[in-house]
Write a structure and sequence with these properties.
The protein is α+β, with helices and mostly antiparallel strands. It is built from ten helices and twelve strands.
Length: about 350
């Protein structure tokens, strides 16, 4: 299990700088410490908690890959043998007391423990797009949302001006606002939002974007049902559904075609792209308290198995360093989980 400690932060910072320069020589790279400082200034600092997805819970399960997946990739995750998985379900945002009954983001982070010490980590969200197309744009969006120290509210003019110049930053929020409050962590779709290349034994590379779709189907709440549920129902609901054997997801891959844009997390693949089932993820247990195996896993999406490769999406490579910095801060503060 990868557990990044503060000594790894310098190396991760170098990775962020190098990747940002490689993606856009003209754009100034975003220092991960500066980025985390801005995140805290915008959304508040909650010591010991993750800077994003603070309200979360650990779970474990297993994944079994499909024959179709083995045809696409040599990754050991698709062998057909059960693969242990450490999962983390969370509510979007930096607040560990975020309400469960709001039209906000849900997250499903996964770590596959593969043979010979290999790992695969990923972070998936309940929207088909991310909130920015580059680390520079993401940083700018955060800065525009920073509350005024006197009014405690963002400057509406700054928010409007940045959004008008960068309309992509509104796409995720618009999607979430259009959806009902999820009835459960186990009844909502989770997208990977980034494109990855799947390489088979013959060296053929197929890019695509994946989505975890609940086997039992989607289930949302009406406004009245959400209000009645209250602000803290998701953890107990997840425990009960897992106890009943009702939390499982199809790991599906939408296949990109030659002209599809695959280097932006704000541009989903066109509707109607062929979808291949890569296997079945089952959640088999949920932590009974605020601990669990996921507490200090960073879920860095650049931790990939052989047979799966990153795309040129600048937001993908840029995640590693802030995750490492965030973990370093949490360990210093005393890592916590809601």
């Amino acid at each position: 299990m990868i557990r990044l400690v503060p000594s790894a932060v310098a190396a991760a910072s170098a990775l962020l700088t190098a990747s940002a320069l490689a993606q856009s020589p003209a754009a100034a790279p975003v220092d991960p410490n500066t980025f985390l400082n801005q995140f805290e200034s915008t959304f508040g600092k909650f010591e010991g908690f993750r800077r994003s997805g603070a309200k979360g819970i650990c779970a474990t399960g297993e994944f079994v890959g499909s024959a179709d997946a083995r045809a696409l990739s040599t990754a050991s995750a698709f062998s057909g043998n059960p693969v242990p998985v450490v999962a983390r379900f969370s509510v979007g945002g930096a607040n560990p007391k975020a309400p469960d009954n709001a039209r906000s983001q849900r997250n499903l982070a996964l770590q596959f423990s593969l043979p010979n010490g290999e790992q695969w980590q990923m972070g998936n969200i309940s929207a088909p797009v991310f909130g920015a197309s580059s680390p520079q744009q993401f940083f700018g969006r955060l800065a525009s949302l920073q509350p005024d120290p006197v009014t405690k509210m963002p400057d509406a003019a700054k928010v409007k001006a940045f959004a008008e110049a960068n309309p992509e930053v509104l796409l995720q929020g618009k999607y979430l606002a259009s959806q009902p409050v999820p009835a459960s962590f186990g009844t909502v779709n989770y997208w990977g939002v980034h494109a990855f290349g799947f390489v088979n034994a013959g060296g053929t590379r197929q890019f695509g974007k994946w989505i975890f779709e609940p086997v039992g189907g989607l289930q949302g709440l009406t406004d009245e049902e959400a209000k009645a549920k209250g602000p803290a129902f998701l953890f107990d609901d997840l425990r009960q559904r897992v106890k009943d054997g009702k939390v499982a997801f199809n790991f599906n891959l939408e296949l990109a075609q030659a002209d599809d844009k695959i280097d932006s997390a704000t541009v989903p693949l066109p509707e109607g792209r062929k979808k291949v089932n890569l296997g079945l993820l089952k959640i088999t247990s949920v932590a009974e308290d605020s601990g669990g195996e996921c507490l200090t896993i960073t879920y860095n999406p650049m931790v990939l198995p052989k047979g799966v490769e990153p795309s040129g999406d600048p937001m993908l490579a840029a995640r590693a360093a802030p995750y490492a910095v965030g973990l370093g801060r949490r360990l210093t503060e005393g890592a916590k989980q809601q």
